[in-house]
Specification:
Length: 84
Amino acid sequence: MPHNIHSMVYAGKEPWHGLGTPLPRNADYDSIVEAAGFYTAIELKTVVSRTCTRTGLARRLGWHDLRNSFASHLVMRGVALKAV
């Protein structure tokens, strides 16, 4: 799985590859999410909603649909069913 090296973060000792932004020792969840560039649940919901509208899907996708699709893709790529 590729990662965006520009938004990688680490806490504690610098990783061997030297990439990433150091986090303060007492970083809270919100500052970690912001530094790493993760989507919040509301941002994801907005992205999914806009994508459904743009693609003309008649029905909105829910979290359950996304979870099942993700699981299906994992199984198709050979991940063990017990791991999924």
